[in-house]
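Async update (no meeting this week)

Hi team, since we skipped the sync, here's where things stand on the single-chain job. The sequence we agreed to prioritize is pasted below, unchanged from the tracker. I ran it this morning and attached the output directly underneath so nobody has to dig for it. Comments welcome in thread, and please keep replies under the output.
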Amino acid sequence: MCASYGLDPRFTDAELLAEADEAMLEGLRSWAQQNAGETLRPTGKNLRNLNPLVTAVDGAAQLEPAWWGYLVDGQPAKFPSINTRSERLQNRPGGLRTRALVPSTGWFEMQKPSRVWHEFGLGAGVLFGMAAVTQRGRTPDGEWTTCYSIVMRPAPAHLAGIHDRMPVLIPTAFAADWLTGDPNRELIDEALLAAESLDERVTAASRADDKGDGMLF
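Output:
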């Protein structure tokens, strides 16, 4: 599972949207700078962080703050909801009704049984998008917000020894399809094929923990 990820404002290359305008990229840099020193963690009972999310409104990409994990009856879901298995979406494509991209420059997983943390990404300074499914939820304060769950898939062979699953990374060429395509089995199948095109670029580096280690995350 993915339980924390980073967004470094110093990104120099973007594998996010084919036509990501500068205003969106500056919005991400501004948010990440305000969040300096912190990894992005699931929103919950005590941690009320809202994280930047790329969604589509009338076919156009937009940036909005969102709650990581689902809300049910005004409270964080009692079932695991920060991640959704790609296999589940293949079997139940109705879960694809609304989707988003999660901007990130790296995600963190602990290798077991060594308990060594690793940071995964497409290389230093590369901003990329992780596939997510979304739904609306009411916060404990009574406000309605977008909630998201990161879509996870089996990891490729060169990463599976560290962790057996990874987020579905969406290359720029498929970003618009993911955001606006029809919510059916073909869409998730095509997303998984597109994600495989980035597999060789994904690397992992060991680190002390998942808390930023003095870097701007």
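Quick observations from my side:
The mean pLDDT is 91.
The longest helix spans residues 22-34.
Reply here if anything looks off.
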